[in-house]
Amino acid sequence: MNYKNITVAGSGVLGSQIAYQTAFKGFPVTVYDINDEALDRAKDRIAKLMPRYQEDLGASMDEVEAGYGRITYHSDLTQAVAEADLVIEAVPEVVHIKEGFYKKLGKAAPDKTIFATNSSTMLPSQFAEATGRPAKFLALHFANEVWKNNTAEIMKHTGTDEQVFNDVIAFAKAIGMVALPLHKEQPGYILNSLLVPLLEVAQLLLVKEIADVETIDKTWMVGTKAPLGPFGILDVVGINTAYNIGQAKAQVTGDADFEKVAELLKNDYIDKGKLGRATGEGFYKYPNPTFAKPGFLES
Ligand code: NAD
User: Fold this and answer.
1) What would the mean pLDDT of 170-175 be, rounded to a whole number?
2) Residue 118: what pLDDT?
3) Pocket flag, ligand 1, residue 130 (CB < 6 Å)
4) For atom 37 of ligand 1, which residue has the closest CA?
5) Residue to mutate, 7, 14, 77, 95, ligand 1, most ligand atoms under 8 Å from C-beta
6) Interior CA angle at 237 toward 232 and 242, to 5°?
7) Is 188 in the pocket of ligand 1 (CB under 6 A)?
8) pTM metric for this prediction
9) 6-182 carries CATH number 3.40.50.720
10) What pLDDT score does 125 carry?
11) Hey, what CATH class is 193-292 in?
């Protein structure tokens, strides 16, 4: 393993998970965020992950505490990256914030340091110049709840050094991820390139009144033996995210069916507080959704 010291920049939802997962797997981790209040929130978030590791992974108290103990916190960027072999960036998904961050980081970090972005929707080539070290920069994309949904999509841009690509793949494996290499840039990586069209078509089938939620999900679940259908997946993703995607699509395409999708999600779900699994109800009611009931897949 070519990397020893890891810095995670941005300690929100994903940054705190990446930091804890990395520390849990034995690496010393430094967490960087803009001020001490943000770092206090990160400590709190990370502490709340510890029982999840015990429940979901069967980790012992000693193990989760040892992971917690391997993390240090800094709001000074130069100090936060002084020893870093790898910086994983998880700052907000806003172009000017990421660009500003990479300009500062490029100056603050030692020459050896590799930078990886966790951006979900932006491509590494957008920031390669701003880093000042395009060959040492690529994407390393995690999924929410990294300890359970342990995909790591590792994506090069055309200037990424092959050795860096291979080292980041090895690092992803070392922290317990299933490493998924992408040899070229692809918006949405592999997972969302597959998933977004599936979810989109499911919603169109619904608003065109071709079939209802349960029938569409049942078709997918029986036909492919998948554990969830598209609407079950949408409940996990969250209705707000689905709405934002649907609305953007309606604006770009001007397609009336996508407008219907956005209206449906807003009026029947968001405005009624049905935001998906997180709120206990979306297309289904939890913890006992119809699709999990005995017999659902049998007739
Ligand atoms: P978030 O809003 O929860 O956290 C962002 C953090 O960045 C906050 O702690 C904030 O204080 C900090 N921050 C703001 N400006 C900063 C700066 N200039 N320098 C350093 N830190 C700064 O966001 P998130 O959901 O964790 O998303 C972060 C990144 O991870 C985004 O690129 C997003 O696309 C990606 N991502 C998110 C998810 C998800 O499910 N939330 C999944 C995969 C990837």
Assistant:
1) 98
2) 98
3) no
4) 14
5) 14
6) 100
7) no
8) 0.91
9) yes
10) 98
11) mainly alpha
